[in-house]
Design goal:
The protein is of the alpha/beta class. The radius of gyration is 41 Å and the shape is rod-shaped.
Length: 224
């Protein structure tokens, strides 16, 4: 027989006790046992005898299915499950790292490392740069800073928004890279080692030396 799960109940549209409108319902007791088909009045009477409620858990069934339960306890358990599910979900946070137009090299490297750390932790990063006064006339300098950051982040981040202006602030949005299941990291290409010179010629063991040359055919010619 089909099992009915009360954890799928939408509490916004639930009917219970006297709000159940069907003439006949299929009833399940608090222990999950089938009590058969009966009138809602009789089922409510059984529930009240146990200080429990009659809750409609499957209104589209024929006849509708109702269960005798402690509805207050059920809502508490359901909210507890929802809180636990939200707690286990990874929440992506948008972290902001602020740069300046005239940022020095040491400060830039420090902020860039912050961006890399946030991306490795799974958070998005808003790299922002505020122009003050006459700096608005040199927006290209600020854009160069953010474009350099994007270039140096490389494959460790995804560019959601390239540098753009909002008022006197230029910003870019970076997101952590998507992990591909079973994906492999690209291997570094090994460059060939340059040769230092021509390879030495090795003499074979059977090659005769100058004094071990074979005599020409016909014997050795002697002077007269």
């Amino acid at each position: 027989m089909r099992a009915f799960r009360e954890d799928r109940i939408d509490k916004r549209f639930i009917r219970m006790n006297e709000r159940i409108r069907a003439r006949e319902i299929r009833v399940i007791d608090a222990d999950g046992n089938q009590l058969g088909v009966m009138a809602p009045y009789d089922a409510i009477k059984r529930a009240r005898e146990q200080n429990l409620d009659l809750v409609e858990i499957s209104p589209n069934a024929v006849p509708p299915v109702c269960r005798i339960m402690d509805y207050g306890k059920f809502l508490y358990e359901q909210e507890k499950k929802e809180r636990a599910a939200k707690k286990n979900q990874k929440q992506i946070v948008l972290k902001e790292v602020k740069f300046s137009v005239n940022v020095d090299e040491h400060d830039y490297v420090t902020k860039r490392n912050h961006v890399l750390r946030f991306l490795e932790e799974g958070d998005k990063v808003k790299a922002s740069l505020r122009f003050r006064g006459r700096e608005m006339a040199h927006q290209n300098l600020g854009r160069n800073v953010l474009e350099r950051l994007i270039k140096e982040i490389g494959e460790k981040g995804i560019v959601e928004f390239r540098p753009r202006m909002e008022g006197n602030i230029m910003h870019a949005i970076l997101a952590p890279p998507k992990q591909v299941p079973g994906g492999k990291k690209p291997e570094k290409q090994q460059l060939p080692t340059p040769a230092s010179g021509p390879a030495p010629v090795t003499k074979g063991p059977d090659k005769p030396g100058p004094q071990q040359q074979a005599a020409p055919a016909g014997g050795t010619k002697t002077g007269s």
